[in-house]
Amino acid sequence: MADTPIRFGIIGCAEIARRVSRAILLAPNATLSAIASRSLDKAANFAKANGFPPEAKVYGSYESLLDDPDVDAVYLPLPTSLHLKWAVLTAQKKKHLLLEKPVALNVAEFDQILKACDENGVQIMDGTMWVHHPRTQKMKEFLDDKERFGQLKTVHSCFTYFAPPEFFQNNIRVKPDLDTLGALGDAGWYGIRSILWAADYELPKTVTALRGPVVNEEGLILDCGASLHWEDGKTATFNCSFLSNLTMNITAIGTFGTLHLTDFIIPYQEHEASYTTSSKARYNELGTGWVPIPSEHNVNVDLPQEACMVREFAGLVGNIKKNGAQPDNKWPTISRKTQLVVDAVNASVEKGFEPVEIVS
Fold it and tell me: What is the CA 322 to chain-centroid distance, rounded?
């Protein structure tokens, strides 16, 4: 579909939309067709500042963009509380949907979005970028290697960043009328996704929130964690926070091997990323070192991970448009599982940090 690129419209001028706008421009099978804001001036300024093609349309209402027949797909980076309304309308207008994470305030809302997408033959994918990085596939090959890694036993994931004072005054992630999920929906989404990814997206049996979450005056989570437990004995933990130094760690431990990386969400460099593995490690004879020592693996990429995400999504949309294919269920299924765990963490907090069973 490189000769007939998927035409994207963007609804909302959120900061993350700057990055995705660039990704759409970089992806070989996509193009920027329109931008909409509740303010026409804001939309026009966004288009100018972010290199939109001169022929891209600028709208002063979301509805106008959804009515544009020259828009194939919509990227929706609105606050989470607005996802249900605008995602459903996007699907009803037969526009394919790249939906920013977290996908909804809860899984019941997301199921309504999925129902609308299914009824209208619309492809949906969430905006979790790192899973589309070529490094992620390389790391999964190691986790799937029964000789080098063995059976997954435990995963530990952490995503934290130290937000400035103005964040707590103005950011949608700490506003109860815009996003009630706080750090859990923002940073926690990534930790939960990384755990599910390592576990082949097998849902845990129970989720238990860790005691002592930090909340703001409105009760929104600023810092929290949880433990996950599977019937076969696998375990995992994650921590997420707006109050700690920037950290993006995954450690996955198997019977024979360990995977570790410290920049899983945003690689230290855009066009190169690394990870570390060890396999069948032991102490040396005197206990003064490791044998063999862990090895570092570098992955070079031609496109940044967000452009890889757009390319993947546009490819699925192109297959529907060109070949009459059905929407691919892989990505919405993964989104729903992530949301289920987010919901379970919230439920565990509300129940006094008791284990909550996952019911898919």
Answer: 27
Q: How far is CA 115 from the centre of its chain?
A: 21
| CA nearest to 197, candidates 123, 132, 108 | 132
d(CA 38, CA 24): 22
pLDDT digits (tens, 9 = 90+) for 263-317: 999 999 999 999 999 999 999 999 999 999 999 999 999 999 999 999 999 999 9
HSE, side-chain direction, 13 A CA sphere, residue 93: 23
User: What are the residues whose beta carbons fall under 8 Å from the beta carbon of 161, sequence distance 6 or more?
Assistant: 187, 241, 242, 244, 245, 246, 247
- Angle between helix axes 15-26 and 40-49 (nearest 10 degrees) is 50
Q: Which has the closest alpha carbon to 99: 196, 207, 189?
A: 189
Residue 120: how many other CB atoms lie within 10 Å: 17
H helical segments located in the chain: 15-26, 40-49, 62-66, 83-92, 107-119, 134-143, 165-170, 182-198, 305-323, 330-350
Question: Model's pTM, two decimal places?
Answer: 0.97
Domains and CATH numbers, the chain: 6-129+305-332 (3.40.50.720), 130-303+339-357 (3.30.360.10)
Where does residue 301 rank: exposed (0-12), middle (13-18), buried (19+ CB within 10 A)? Answer: middle
Whether 12 and 80 have beta carbons less than 8 Å apart is answered as: no
Residue type at 317 in one-letter notation:
V
Distance, in Å, from the CA atom of 158 to the CA atom of 310, rounded to the nearest integer, reads 25
Token match 């909409």: residue? 36
Q: Is the bond preceding residue 102 a cis peptide, omega within 30 degrees?
A: yes
In angstroms, rounded to a whole number, what is the distance separating the alpha carbons of residues 35 and 307? 18
The amino acid sitting at 122 is V
Cβ neighbours around 359 below 10 Å, total: 7
Q: Which amino acid is at 236?
A: A
Residue 155 tokens read as 């995963």
**Per-residue pLDDT reduced to its tens digit, 309-357:** 999 999 999 999 999 999 999 999 999 999 999 999 999 999 999 999 9
